Amino acid sequence: MAVLLQQLLNGISLGSIYALLALGYTMVYGIINLINFAHGDVYMIGAYIGFIATALLGLGFIPALLLSMAISALLGMAIEKVAYRPLRNSSRIALLITAIGMSLLLEYTTMYIAGPDTRSFPTVLTNRQYSFMSGQVNISSMQLYILVISIMLMILLQFIVQRTKIGKAMRAVSMDKDAAQLMGINVDTTISATFAIGSALAGAAGILVGIYYNSIDPLMGITPGLKAFIAAVFGGIGSIPGAMVGGLLLGMIETLVSGYLNSNYRDAVAFVILIIILLIKPSGLLGKNTGEKV
Question: Cα(186)–Cα(209) distance, rounded to whole angstroms?
């Protein structure tokens, strides 16, 4: 029982990171039906911004987190305006190829500027261990930071989407872009805001991972980006609650596989889940089947 509880606690921490990333995927897909494969690399950029803020500028954790989120948001808006907006009315394959190209551009530009080597993230938070069940179950303060910050950001996102003017515009554009435009909603501004919010969450995830694992590198966004996409599909891509649930479940499944089977299988199980969910319930756990008008 103690081993199960320990693995679930570890999985919740990992799943919180996946959930933050999956939210960006699902928001963009819900608005313009685009799988933004550059999203994982925005997460990587966020980690590097956090590294610069803490190691070179000497900022504390909260200022570094806010700076990383702000710059990631600007980067997301720039990517949308430069790479995706000119192709918005093109075929989906053109957008997909552009997204992959943007991903490679961000990775190798970062590699050219910062170098390919792994960098150690500075210690900006004290990491304490808390034990339960006679020392059989442990949770670190770092895991608590990740969980609390992730929950706060998810609640803030829900508030923005459900209670603010820009959130209502996002929901309107996701339902019917042309009708929303006829009702006076600025579609371009709404899409840019969607990219900004999703990218800010990715930036937050990047600095949290850098602090937790104490290392960053230019290719660190590839695998988490793919897994976050799987989490979004698992929960129901286009559904914000689905992205949260999918991320948390995927994190817990991975840690259970690592704890009870073999850690070498943890990456494979994510793709097995993707295949199973596409075969059994393509709309995801919380997604809805929608008919397409012809």
Answer: 35
Mean pLDDT, to the nearest integer, of 20-25? 91
198-232 pLDDT, tens per residue? 999 999 999 999 988 888 999 999 999 999 999 99
Residue 287 covered by a domain: no
Whether 65 contacts 202, CB under 8 Å:
no
Q: What does the alpha-carbon distance between residue 43 and residue 224 come to, in Å, rounded to a whole number? A: 9
Are the C-beta atoms of residues 190 and 169 closer than 8 Å to each other?
yes
The tokens 């969910």 sit on which residue?
277
Encode pLDDT of 111-142 as tens digits. 999 999 999 888 887 778 887 777 778 888 88
Kindly provide the residue ranges of all beta strands, DSSP E only, lying in 12-102, ordered along the sequence: none
As for how many domains the chain has, the answer is 1
Query: What is the C-alpha separation between 252 and 21, in angstroms, rounded?
Result: 16
What stretch of H or E contains 241?
Answer: helix 240-260
Determine the structural domain holding residue 254 and report its residue range.
Answer: 2-124+136-280
> CATH no. for residue 90?
1.10.3470
Task: Give the gyration radius of the chain's Cα atoms.
Answer: 19
- Is residue 180 a part of any domain in this protein? yes
Write a three-state SS string for 126-173. CCCEEEECCCCEEEEHHHHHHHHHHHHHHHHHHHHHHHCHHHHHHHHH
